[in-house]
Design a protein that fits this description.
Helices cover about 20% and strands about 30% of the residues. The strands form three sheets. Strands 1, 4, 5, 8, 13, 14, 15, 16 and 18 form a nine-stranded antiparallel beta sheet that branches. The chain has a seven-stranded antiparallel beta sheet with strand order 2-7-17-9-10-11-12. A hairpin with a 3-residue loop joins β13 and β14. The longest helix has 15 residues. The protein binds 2-acetamido-2-deoxy-beta-D-glucopyranose (3 copies). The site of one 2-acetamido-2-deoxy-beta-D-glucopyranose (NAG) has 3 residues, from loops.
Length: about 325
Amino acid sequence: MRSASFLALSFASSALGATYQMSENIVGAGFYNSFNFETAPDPTHGRVNYVDQATATNTNLTFAAGNTFVLRADHKTVLDPNGAGRNSVRISSKNTYTTHVAVFDMAHIPVGCGTWPAVWETGGSWPYGGETDIFEAVNGQGTNQATLHTSPGCTMPASRSETGSAPTTPAQLDCDTSVNGNAGCGVTFAQGTSNGPAFNDNGGGWYAMERTNAAISVWFWSHSDPSVPADVRAGGSTVSTDAWGVPSATFPNTSCDIASHFVPHNIIINLTICGDWAGDASVYASSGCPSTCNDFVNNNPGAFTDAFFEFNSINVYT
Ligand SMILES: *[C@@H]1O[C@H](CO)[C@@H](O)[C@H](O)[C@H]1NC(C)=O
Ligand SMILES: *[C@@H]1O[C@H](CO)[C@@H](O)[C@H](O)[C@H]1NC(C)=O
Ligand SMILES: *[C@@H]1O[C@H](CO)[C@@H](O)[C@H](O)[C@H]1NC(C)=O
């Protein structure tokens, strides 16, 4: 009896190790309280003009009602090729986070030629504070890619417990921004519904990221996926990542001291247009997109009607 109850107790405490309490529930107009609008030029050379909060709300580039928050690029204006880029939005959380879980419940993500949406975290002096890309895609193509970008001395093992796949050369497993043209150590998701029209056609989905000093992991479940954990679906007051199964991407600390490569991070949501990745001539052409990226963006506002995020909530747990 004694040893059986000891066993039960030790199982209970190991499960508790990965149970988190909700610290923020960001919904609808709450996004305006929790995020700042950032208007600095896009460092990745996008054909984009990030607007301030007043402009975003006045022109409906952000919209909040009930449990909905929409963030979009302008889909009405033909652009002067010598003028500013397409109006869009970049928001950064007022709070910062170290070890935590963040669950992003999205009903819609931006798709279409020229779009480069991202949900990510960074902080401190880049790249010394580290960067975690949770959701990132270009031109509405392919599946999601989750990526770390760091200062030197953070590499990933080729073999890890994840459902996504990573290229395996030493350079591709090196998260150092000075290696491999700042490609980072990315993991491409196996799930076809993790991006593009398939994400939207299945009613959206949940992205969840857990950061501990032992690993950074990202999970994805489509809203049509019956295997989503009950605590994620419920968006309730606690989550237990132990029960979430094998992540889509995981970045363990085996040869990366996460505690020293990652400082407190802001959550950032931005939608850029063209630029170094989406607008790269070969990437853009291989996405089946017409003309050149900048020319297409300047002349075809109607192609951006689906270039929007719609959030049901962001829940943060610590
Ligand atoms: C603003 O955007 C929302 C969400 O897309 C939409 O429902 C609403 O009709 C738009 N309002 C105007 C005035 O265009
Ligand atoms: C990985 O993280 C765990 C938990 O914080 C820690 O005990 C361990 O020393 C770390 N290992 C390395 C190689 O940094
Ligand atoms: C978001 O900002 C980051 C860093 O400033 C930049 O690398 C990236 O291109 C931007 N992405 C989007 C989607 O705007």
